[in-house]
Amino acid sequence: MLGNTIDFRRSLLRWYHTNRRDLPWRVARENPQTATPNPYHVLVSEAMLQQTQVATVIPYFNRFMAAYPTLRDLAKAKEQEILRLWQGLGYYSRARNLLATAKILVEENNGKIPSSLEALLKLPGIGRYTAGAIASLAFEKRAPILDGNVARVLSRLEGSTGCTSGASRESLWQRAEELLPKKRVGDFNSALMELGATICTPRAPRCPLCPVQKHCAALAAGVVDQIPPAPAPKIRPIERRITLAISKKDVGQECPTYLIEQRPPRGRWASMWQFITIEAADIPPTAQSLSERVGLSLSDVRHLGALQHDLTHRRYQFQVLSCRAKSSKNPLPKDRRWVGLDGLSDFPLPRPQLQVAQMISSIIRR
After folding, report:
1. Which of 49, 255, 271, 318 is the most buried (most CB within 10 A)?
2. 178 labelled catalytic
3. Are 197 and 171 in contact (CB under 8 A)?
């Protein structure tokens, strides 16, 4: 068990003041104890940081702030614009929830981000951790946080191997609340996360550099590497798809255009765009079979390549084929567009579809 709580807090905050990373959503290092964090910056950064590394988030955050510098600016945005900026960051429901939150706060709360846990928890996509992070980091409310980094730090401090179980996790929430100081709550919570991200890492923790090593039960017992225990390997089902780079080149066109379609408004990659993608079938992907499945007359079917996209609970395998569409006078459905490769930047595409576009570009340049 952690002993001198006051000494622990002081040591951790002293280390954080000197070693914290300069991140665009944090207050300036020059005067961190008197500067006030921007609640909007905290809201956006916490949405982006869910299940995503800091280094990945920084350029996305900077581009997002350049496009939508205030909550009111964000509330005026269209979903397709937000998804386009979020493209490649993954977990796109975060972007949709962030936009929905902005609209609600502008319409119902005069564009103000609430400071209470109760009000924050009512907003789309904001759970217990995110509410605590916004309340403490932006408003200095005495609210605990428990993300993966903090759970690992507290588990090692306590020498507990059960940080992933429900009962143990609730115990960690209680411990995180008990450790909170009366002042500098935001810095304290940030320091816990910073310690887990930079020193008390999942593998090869840098214990000699830890500012609170004397409080660590796991280090004293020599079991730091066993906490948290290694997760059981996950068996991810494989879903196979065929993606078609369907092109056409009308008279007078210098470059071909490609057919893309918008995904359904719900489900994975909701409302984003993709090259025509169908489930792989047992029948060979011939021009005739593909024409029947996509509702177009196709020819010149060729294999471009294959790619794999891994998600937390499943794995996608894409067979990428190129083919040409024969001219047709039938109008396209509203969820399909003919677009040149240069025009794809106007449409939000999931990462595997971006890879398909890169595959087509590389072949064209040969």
Report:
1. 318
2. no
3. no
Q: Please give the backbone phi and psi of residue 46, each rounded to the nearest 5 degrees, phi first.
A: -65, -35
How is residue 230 written in tokens? 């290694």
Say which residues have a Cβ less than 8 Å from residue 281's Cβ, sequence separation at least 6.
289, 293
* Cα angle 232-238-241, degrees, rounded to a multiple of 5: 155
Burial label, 252 (beta-carbon count in 10 A; 0-12, 13-18, 19+): exposed
User: Is residue 156, in this structure, part of any structural domain at all?
Assistant: no
If asked whether residues 183 and 256 sit together in one domain, one would say: no
Per-residue pLDDT reduced to its tens digit, 324-346: 998 767 788 999 999 999 999 99
H helix intervals, 34-147:
39-49, 54-67, 71-75, 79-86, 93-108, 117-120, 128-139
**Cβ(341)–Cβ(352) under 8 Å?**
no
Query: Which residue type is seen at 294?
Result: V
Pairwise CA distance, residues 1 & 238, whole Å? 44
Instruction: Decide if 277 is inside a domain.
Output: yes
What DSSP state is assigned to residue 263?
A: P
- Does 278 lie in the same domain as 130? no
d(CA 74, CA 48): 15
Residue listed under structure tokens 């017992």:
221
Rounded percentage of the chain residues whose pLDDT exceeds 70: 94
Q: Report if residue 73 sits inside a domain.
A: yes
Cα separation, 273 vs 264, in Å, equals 9
Does some domain include residue 214? Answer: no
